[in-house]
Amino acid sequence: GVLFLERKQYSKALGDFSEVLSTDARNAMVRYNLGVAYKFLGDDKSACNEWKRAARDGDTSAQEALKKFCK
Fold it and tell me: What backbone phi and psi angles, to 5 degrees, belong to 20?
């Protein structure tokens, strides 16, 4: 998923991150990256929802993204 993000293939990244979360729903780092992919695709609502969940599970990057992008 991260490789797809780096290559700006955000839809493919969504698929990879979603697949990981189907077996590891509390993986905060993956959930944060899923939020990044949504953000680049212009889906701010989904991005913020993923970052909220990641932040609840302790991801500090998600907490920063929430402060910056989700008012």
Answer: -60, -45
Helical H segments across 2-43, by residue range: 2-6, 10-23, 28-40
Residue 43 has phi, psi (to 5 degrees) of: -100, 75
**Is the pLDDT confidence value at 71 over 90?**
no
Q: State the maximum Cα–Cα separation within the chain, in Å, rounded to a whole number.
A: 30
Which of the four pLDDT bands, split at 50, 70 and 90, describes residue 43? very high
3-state helix, strand, coil in the chain (%, to 5): 75, 0, 25
- Helices 28-40 and 44-56 sit at what angle, rounded to 10 degrees? 170
d(CA 53, CA 59): 9
Question: How many residues comprise the chain?
Answer: 71
Cα separation, 18 vs 20, in Å, equals: 5
